[in-house]
Amino acid sequence: MTIYMLIAAGYFLGSIPFGVLITRAFGAGDLRQIGSGNIGATNVLRTGRKGLAAATLILDGAKGAVAVLLARHFVPELGDDGAMIAGAAAMIGHCYPVWLRFRGGKGVATLLGLSLALAWPIGLVFAAVWLATVLLLRISSLGGMLGAVAAPVAALAFGHPTYAIGLAGLAVIVLWRHRENIARLRAGTEPRVGSGKKDAA
């Protein structure tokens, strides 16, 4: 029963669509009708409201982090397994929120947040790979995907096999959510940051 409650709590926490709520509250319109229609920070940025985009990024990341921290606080007996399960449930909630007919975000920010909460060195590697890719190649989607893939590798390198397995599974979800971006990357048509074109990152 404890495991089921942990999964439910993590899922519903992750399913809070902060991007949609923030843009609506501050009069920036329905995020699902803007740009790519995605509910993440990259699409919020297309409203021209950098502050709202930053807030969305932080809050989406916080969902994953808070789920991990709550699991550690309330069910410490589950240890790494409980933390990983709660974080994974939060990310799945973000990607497939029941409130939006299971059409959510792509999970990069939430995965970063839960990675930092699981073990900050893992999250640091994730963030470094993500930012380095964006700065060097100016492709947001590629940065997020490479960061997600780097997380389980870092977990294994830092001696966290349980996290490595869980993060690997979540990285697969991130890649699946970016399948249209991957197709454009292969075709050489994926927009770069600052290009002024709409993408689905």
Characterise the protein shown here.
The chain is 70% helix and 0% strand. It has helices at 2-14, 18-25, 41-45, 50-74, 79-95, 108-118, 120-137, 140-157, 161-177, 179-187. Helix 4 packs across helix 6 (108-118) and helix 6 runs parallel beside helix 8.
Q: Specify the biggest β-sheet.
A: none
- Distance from N terminus to C terminus (CA atoms, Å) equals 37 Å
Low-confidence stretches: none
Q: Could you state the order of secondary-structure elements as H and E?
A: HHHHHHHHHH
- The percentage of residues in β strands lies in under 5%
Mean pLDDT: 92
Structural class: mainly alpha
Task: Summarize the helices and strands and which ones pair or pack.
Elements: H1 2-14, H2 18-25, H3 41-45, H4 50-74, H5 79-95, H6 108-118, H7 120-137, H8 140-157, H9 161-177, H10 179-187
Write a concise keyword list for the protein shown above.
single chain, 201 residues, mainly alpha, 0% strand
Summarize the structure in short.
With 201 residues, the chain is an all-alpha fold. It is 70% helix and 0% strand.
